Amino acid sequence: MNQLFADRFKSARLLNGYSLQGLADAMGNKVSKQALHKYEKGEVIPDSEKISLLSDVLNVRPDYFFREMKVELGAIEYRKLKKMPAKEGHKVIEQTRECLSRYLELEEILGIAQEFSNPLKDFPEVSTHDQVDEAATRLRTEWGLGTGPIFNIPELFEDKHIKVVEIDADVSFDGMQTWVNGETIPVIAYNKNIANKLDRIRFTLLHELAHLLLKIDKSLTDGQKERLCHQFAGAVLLPKNTLLVELGQRRSRLSINELGNIKKQYGISMQALVMRANACGIVNSHYTSQFFNLMKQMNWRKEEPIAYEGVERSNRFDQLLYRALAEELISVSKGAALKNMKLSVFRSQSLIM
């Protein structure tokens, strides 16, 4: 019991980005750094009053500290890691572990068996744009997506048994991917702080999907691998034949309003769209450079003048949670624990007929 509390306490501390001293300060030094160190080493379990105080400061329920974690993350590689403070990296990892732990426990309660099948498992190693384009076409075919716009990518991933986790992280973090519990469950996490840029969320999710599904030539540099994953994301969002219908075979100029309308339909940024048009031979590299210079001059690189307005969120966890409540497989108290909410708040939101 001591070790379980110690592990969960450390996880909650990292989840919130606190050092031991920082946590002591946040608690008004009602618990010393030395005492917190003993908790984390498993030497002492605090009394109920201190556990309640810890719960409030760390934004978890008291039972969090005594619930076993059933998640073992595989290797993690995510973009811009070197630009993130170490504590932010820890927060990302612990948030992912915590969300998945509750998610997998809920599926276990409902007796849901999820088996992921990689639609590109037999696809050969990729090292060129054309190969990535072919892989994107194969994915759309295997998943029955046709050639039109894709609605709600997080929901699509969940339907295909890929866990999607929303993370509260530093703005330098876009997304990450890994495998859980012996490479049986794929998971992709993205930063909810880019939620106002839905086209960026869509692109990030598909970029991370490329890392999960593709066998990429190991001799390539990290930069080359990233570009291939970018190209895969663009190709899934907007297949070549569809792009040719929208833009034509060859263009010397493109209208911002024209690009904006395609963006609103397909959920791909104008910048990714022009890169895609260049890769497909519709516009040349000179025009592409001019376009990006214009975006820079107009200060549109981070905030494009036309927004994509869609729905990019999975509700599967909540759906399963309220199903378990309705079928009386869990109590309201257990539901609050799985949702990581205070009981009073959860009870006020749980309408069971």
Automatic annotation (TrEMBL):
GO terms for molecular function: DNA binding. SMART domains: HTH_XRE. Pfam families: HTH_3, Peptidase_M78. Residues 9-65 form the HTH cro/C1-type domain. PANTHER family: ANTITOXIN HIGA1, BLL7220 PROTEIN. Belongs to the short-chain fatty acyl-CoA assimilation regulator (ScfR) family. This is Zn-dependent peptidase ImmA (M78 family). It comes from Anseongella ginsenosidimutans.
